[in-house]
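During the first year of the project, the team set up a workflow for recording each protein of interest as an amino acid sequence followed immediately by a discrete structure-token representation. This format lets reviewers and collaborators read both layers of information side by side without switching files. As required by the reporting guidelines, we include two representative entries from the current panel. The first entry is reproduced here exactly as it appears in our internal archive.
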Amino acid sequence: MRLLVTGGRTGYLGRHVVSAAPGHEVVAVGSVDADLRDPRAVDALVAHHRPDAIVHTAYVQSDWDVTATGAAHVATAAARHGARLVLVSSDVVFSGADGLYTESARPDPISPYGAAKAAAETVALAVCPDVVVARTSLILGDGTSFHERLVHALATGAEGALFDDEQRTPVHVGELAAALVELAGNAYQGVLHVAGAQAMSRFELGRLIALRDGLDPDALRATTRAAAGVAGPVDVRLDSSRASQVLTTRLRGAGEFL
């Protein structure tokens, strides 16, 4: 299988997807190869490489033109050139009002980033005949993720605290990457939740990271989103039970992989 991975050059998840695809012909691309905001550049990139499948991991959280419009350009090019698309999306397409979310739940984002991801999903599902929208949660596990680096900083004296009221379903980056490669090569179509098997707060997650890495978990402080004045969904637990039936890759909970 010829696999094109957007964000595969320098992106955190994208680099892991490239590493998780031995035996496949992998083309890792980044912003130096094509500006996702330019539909002609994206189309030319896909036309040149002629992939069997595209795993789209690239995004810029604060940039609608990259996260939403860029994903739409990738989806349009995938459809035009007959490539299967695995679009990586996020649990932040949900408001958190319902707590536990299955694939049939209707997106109701309350943040600009969530809205951008929801828009990307909508276009991909509308224009691609062969697409998987893979929603996931907090990504970590190799020691270099944003979440792990933040915990190290906070545990060694940096200012700040971790939310203890926000429930998410963290996933190991290597397992997520393997699942995305598997999805690129199977026949599943539509939305699939590809997250960890255990819900926990960022504070609970931080304590597990600290314990794993020999840091003092009691050095971490807890707060709430309201107290910190940071808007965002509070209880967003992805139900990934369907993924456990569709995939051979096992998605562990953070309590196990940490």
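The second entry, processed by the same pipeline in the following quarter, appears below.
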Amino acid sequence: MTRPLRAAIIGTGAIAQAHAQAITELAPRIELIAVVDLDEDRARAFAERFAPDAAVHAEADALLGSGRLDLVHICTPPQTHVPLALRALRAGVPALIEKPTALSLAELDELVAVSEQTGVPALTVFQHRFGAAAQRLRRLVREGALGRPLVATCETLWYRTPDYFDLPWRGRWAGEGGGPTMGHGIHQFDLLLAVLGPWTRLTAFAARQALPTDTEDVSMALVEFECGALATVVNSLVSPRETSRLRFDFERATVEVEHLYGYTESDWTLTPAPGHEQLAARWAAEAQQGPDAGTRRSGHRDQLAAIVAALEAGEPPEVGAAEARRTLELAAATYASAFRGGPVRAGELAGDDPFLRSMDGGLVPWAPVKEVPA
């Protein structure tokens, strides 16, 4: 048996617990050997809970330079993701980065370039791709079993109270990169893109309806795909009945999932078109089996298991930064379309376009007007 992969977690906030739990569940193939947080007391408490033998550090550089790591999980506030990931890549350590990977396309392009230069993977957490049902759907689409995709809806309708934004980086363009389009709905529309493939054009709206943020709290987009499908994408933080929903209408079947923060097998349905009833039988026959099949939720464990398998095999893991760029570009184009008032095509945000450098593009309609000195 080969030795376990050695992992570290930088940042011990709420999302880090999902990473640590995933590592624990995948033992002995991977182990948590170090924890980093500016608050050393919090880091020690975190290590004591998940990995009592793990080293504890207040700063990342000594850890990254140790030569003992196979993977570092970056779970810090969004504005620190790329700077930390770049340090990891240059130290030869693959980085698994919480969403959003970067706060702008330009920042992500730098990450892609350094990953390519060093040959070290930079990976994004898009765990909804990796649940068993999503993997099955993607396989059926690749095989052409469902026919041509026609229509899709993607909804992330969540609810946050004003005190959620008490953390200084939340709801701020400079700290979080955007509102629910960047920090909440991105998981759902990443799965939409993983199923339907490249998008070509979109038209969008965004608004700040109720929350005390600089960013939007609602956005909506109509998206056209290379495959010919049309989709609506809605992201909200002002929806009291919370839900996360995806629906795909193909020529031969409708496939749907509705959940909140992670789906189970029972959250998915396939409805065949007349004459294609065998698809429902195949969907059921290929469903995940086992005693926990109806209760096990998609999450970080599924993606980490795929990453571990790829690293063990010496293969590039999913989801690399270059692929994640397509998802982030959809977010940037949503803002560009909403704030400029017109459609945006894939690849259009380039050169010196302000939406390449920041998600707000300097054009937020509700931003306070800066006074010009007399």
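For the second entry, the following points were noted during internal review. The CA atoms of residues 265 and 289 lie 9 Å apart. The two ends are 74 Å apart (CA to CA). Both points are flagged for discussion at the upcoming steering committee meeting.
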